[in-house]
Amino acid sequence: MKKIISKILIVFFLLVVYIYVCNITFLPSSYILLQGENLNIPVLAGLSVKDTNSQDILQTASNITSKQVEQVGKIDLSLSLFKLFTVKNITVNVIPKTTVVPVGKAIGMKLYTEGVLVVGMSEIEGKKPYENSGIKEGDRIVAINQSEIENTQMLMQVVNESKGNEISIKYIRDEKTITTSMTPVKNEEEQYKLGLWVRDAAAGVGTLTFYEPSSKMFGTLGHGILDVDTSGLIKIENGELVTTNILSIQKGEKGNPRRN
């Protein structure tokens, strides 16, 4: 009987330890607060929360840590066991209180890519300058011969200035920067080409979600934008809004959600 009771006590003790550890593990490693909000971190018996910058002990009891945060910025906290060793680090980011104006108005957008986006390839006078370069659709060309490429016009200019000599090309794929080389080919118009179809902008419509008066900033959309040719996410560097009017709405159908 004593052995059974001992086993039950051991199992109970291990269960308590497991729950204790889980409660610590499941605490978020980071918090985001608005200026003036209370910082609430649930702590268990034996734990204490300390501001690593000021070394202030915020709470050592087995209830809710509560501290009103007024200063904007980052606070680094450490969660320690019996004030002996740290078991978890917590970062608190305090952002200023902001009032925004909801809008909900349809807008037009013109978005400019980082570098130029390769959307297709074609032969030039029967040759394929791109054939062994490794470049493929969806890549973003960001530099040629150490010159940064911001748009298609700059790319055409740099390629023409090469006079058919081999050029070094830097492009990005899956956030990795790769360098290759190509030799431009002269076409019938006496211009040098790479055989690449590129684009530096995309246009579309969306909804202006909100406007923030003090900074004059606005928010629109809430998702990435896929390129119509490559079906990949467009890496946007900047953009601008244009006036848009909704002239008509066509109801989507099964298998055809959007009709043009």
Tags for this entry?
13% helix; Immunoglobulin-like; mainly beta; eight-stranded antiparallel beta sheet; Pdz3 Domain; 260 residues; 2 helices
CATH class of the largest domain: Mainly Beta
Q: Helix proportion of residues, in percent?
A: 10-25%
> How many β-strands, per DSSP?
17
List the total number of helices: 2
Distance between the amino and carboxyl termini = 80 Å
Average pLDDT: 80
Look up the CATH topology of the largest domain.
Answer: Pdz3 Domain
The H-and-E topology, N to C, reads as HEEEEEEEEEEHEEEEEEE
Classify the secondary structure makeup into a structural class: mainly beta
> What is the CATH superfamily classification of the largest domain?
PDZ domain
Uncertain runs: 55-64
Level-2 CATH architecture of the largest domain: Roll
| Global morphology | elongated
The profile of the biggest β sheet is: 8 strands, antiparallel
Q: Count structural domains.
A: 3
Describe the overall structure.
This protein is mainly beta. Mean pLDDT is 80; it is low at 55-64. It has three domains: 28-95, Immunoglobulin-like (Sandwich), CATH 2.60.40; 101-108 and 202-242, no CATH class; 114-197, Pdz3 Domain (Roll), CATH 2.30.42. Helices cover 13% and strands 45% of the residues. The longest helix has 24 residues, at 2-25. The strands form four sheets. Strands 8, 9, 10, 11, 12, 15, 16 and 17 form an eight-stranded antiparallel β-sheet that branches. A five-stranded mixed β-sheet has the order 1-7-6-3-4, with no helix packed on it. A two-stranded antiparallel ribbon has the order 2-5. It contains two helices and 17 strands.
